[in-house]
Amino acid sequence: MRAIRLQIDGEPVGKARPRFATKTKTGKRLKYPKAINVQATQEGLFLLEVKRQMKELSPLAGPLSMDLVFVMPIPKYLKKKKSFQENIKSQIQWHTKKPDTSNMVKFVEDCLIGLAYEDDSTIAISNARKFYGESPKTLITIKEID
After folding, report:
1. What is the CATH number of the domain that holds 111?
2. Residues 8-36: what's their mean pLDDT?
3. In the chain, which end has fewer C-beta atoms inside a 10 angstrom radius, N or C?
4. Domain count of the chain?
């Protein structure tokens, strides 16, 4: 059973909704609205790190299991609270703000197409969680299911 484990440092991001242009840069009206990718830079940075870590790995095949852990940065207003600092050392402090867990999962799944697996439809089991931590990162584990 093969597995891929990745750690992407930096603040996790969620998949943004598509934006549409109805006019060209010169102001001319388009016949059909054009979809614009507003996350091209974020996806590019994410993909660079994934490609660096997967240099010698080949994509997984068959039914897959994906486990995602999103460690979110602690906001400045919470860093000052002594009770929060004590709690974070003794137990997990769940992140219940935006971005949504489902949007962050979708961002990772879409970015890994063609690198970790051929298509995200091969993911049969998915588990994701997000909580506050000292160093923000995304931990990804993908396994082939027997």
Report:
1. 3.30.1330.70
2. 82
3. C
4. 1
